[in-house]
Amino acid sequence: MTEAGIAIRAIGLCKAYHCYKHPVDALLELVMRRQRHDRFIALDNVNLEVRQGEIIGILGRNGAGKSTLLKLIAGTLERSSGDLDVHGRITAILELGTGFHMDYTGRENIYMGGLCLGMSRCEIDEKLEDIIQFSELSDFIDRPFKTYSTGMQARLTFSTATSIDPDIMIVDEALSVGDARFQLKCFNRLQQMRERQTTILLVSHDTNTITSLCDRAMILESGRVYAEGNPKRISVAYQNLLFGSSKTKKDMLIERAGDLKNSGIDKDPDSNTENVQLNKKNSKQPRNEKVISSETKLRYGSGEARLLDWGLLNDQGNDCNVITSGTACRLYMILRIMADLDDMSVGFAIKDRRGSVLWGVTNITQKYPPYQARSGETLTIVADCTMWLADGDYFVTLGVAHLDGGDKIDFVEDAIEFKIIGTSGIFTTSIINLQTNFRIMDGYAIKIKK
Length: 450
What we know:
This protein is α/β, with parallel strands linked by helices.
């Protein structure tokens, strides 16, 4: 008996497939009673508990078992073993165009898809115009579904699937297609469902989507639960899983501030550190005290280059972790090259508390070509900017990667934690500060005076 408030509970959930080299092997196995198949385990001993109204993000590489898990929960696939309890009406978008026929028109497919979702024809009649309006396909609704682009198919699929009020909504990468405007409409629709206490399982490779929308997140790897917890931390762990080196977990953790005392960066005549204007004599923080969160941070990469130092400077050239909005500042990092690199991309990204990227810059975004560096060189990378963020706490992720393929060389997640103060006269929920001159004038006066 499942306790109240639990929408989904899986204990020891497994799914295995019998793989035959030849179609006739299945018949021979039955007749001869000798095994002629290989056993592929798609899902192995998965435990999951989802409470009513939660949004759970699921990350994982291709073939990790994400779609298999969702199909088991949706009831379109039988489990091999384990216990699975699902309570409530389910709507699932497992594949693009699920329940739709390519030769039918968009309007006919709304009826077919709605019937597959358990709606009556009368219910579909009532919701038809809302579905068409949300999909923005009124000009194409009576054309064959096969003439639709991938984005148009996604619009109609999502609009139909979310037109009912399910207890559980399952979305398998359906938000990765369609234009940015429609994706925003989809996010807003999911937020509305969340307010109605709809339980949502969301598969996505986009960590920004996971951190901004989900209450919890999990990673599947080789059919098992690799990690589960806070969306921001899980997103960092997923990036490490994709791009991290083969080092041990202990090696991948960022060193504390004092661990860089013997790095020798001040002794390198080629490091150009004088351009950073550290002004350490007037700084309240010792030279090797990093401006980072008190928690140990995650670091990963191939090791072809090594970050020796990094930080945030205020307009006086001092290390800081509090900045007044609208003032100049400098992000910097010092990089030791350990192997020849021909396609180096290096940069900074600022994130909010949920891990959503608010701003980012690299040598590539600044129209510079991929940087070439030789083993033994020490480089200083700086980004001078005016900090127009609103009041709040923010984090800086920084590092270097290969442009070709995006493989990380040395990356530090949330390396710097800082606080913005000083904004006023804007919404308390604002993210940026545009230093607005707000006026109310008589008449029609919209021209900007130079």
